Amino acid sequence: MKMKNLLKFWLLILMLISFDCFSQNYKVIYKLIYKTDSTLEETKTKNMLLDINNNVSIFYSYDFYKSDSLYQENLKLGKEVYQPMFDSNFSVVKNNYKPIVTKYYNFPPNNIIYKLEEAKTNFEWKILNETKKINNYLCQKAQLKYKGRSWTVWFTKEVPLNFGPYVFDGLPGAIMYMEDSKRNYIFELISMQKSSPSKVDFLKDWNIIKVSKKEFTKINLDRYNDPYKEMRKDETLIEGSSGELIKPNINQMTKGKQEFIKRHNNPIEILEAIKYP
Fold this sequence. Notes:
By secondary structure, the chain is α+β, with helices and mostly antiparallel strands. The chain has 2 domains: 21-194, outer membrane lipoprotein receptor (LolB), chain A (Clam); 212-272, no CATH class. The chain is built from 5 helices and 14 strands. The protein has helices spanning 3-23, 62-76, 213-225, 229-234, 250-263; strands spanning 26-34, 44-53, 56-61, 91-95, 100-105, 113-119, 126-134, 137-146, 149-156, 174-180, 185-194, 208-211, 238-239, 245-246. The strands form 2 sheets. Strands 7-8-9-10-11-1-2-3-4-5-6-12 form a 12-stranded mixed sheet. A two-stranded antiparallel sheet has the order 13-14. The longest helix is centred in the first third of the chain and has 21 residues, at 3-23. The protein starts with a helix and ends in a 14-residue tail after the last helix.
């Protein structure tokens, strides 16, 4: 091969490599509608960001992403800043080179974040022939049973990347919409754009404790059994109806909190629900 042609060949290879790397960097926003109490019709809505950065993907609250980005920017400028409250609901990190999924949890106002690692799931998708248009994309139907929920999913091969919300992936195209059979959880893709590669340093300034599943269960049960432990220990006073400081009725508060925790025990993975006494 002549030197000129050889140079063109390697330039083409470099361009393809660069395009491939860039094409793997996306910021995808899913709207999530969900019920914390499965016995009520009341739902919550939040936008979730799927940040795909080469071989690492992070799924977490879009509002937290915006507030944390502002916090990091002001920190670099030397401004006085306050660390935003971390919204840990449904936060997941995946690395294509590692066989694990990392999930993050916290219980505000406590600023400790619990990091839980578990093996990746090879999802047993059932792909059907049914198709329909969603947001001008031709989508195909698929079904999945995962940790106690039956899911209906619509994905598109027109976006030939196998991403999806939360832990879900592995289809021959991007997941555009999915819901469980009881419509307790609904994900809808609302925007998708390419982004430049960036250094992944998720929650680098936070107090993170790695725990096992058994330890995390105990943390939840301890929180349920004595949700006002610190208030009880510090003998905290609260403001009464007349403005005076009074000693709170911790036992009554505990009972109310326990009832609340039980009512709102509707996790996306039903088989992982904490069994409270």
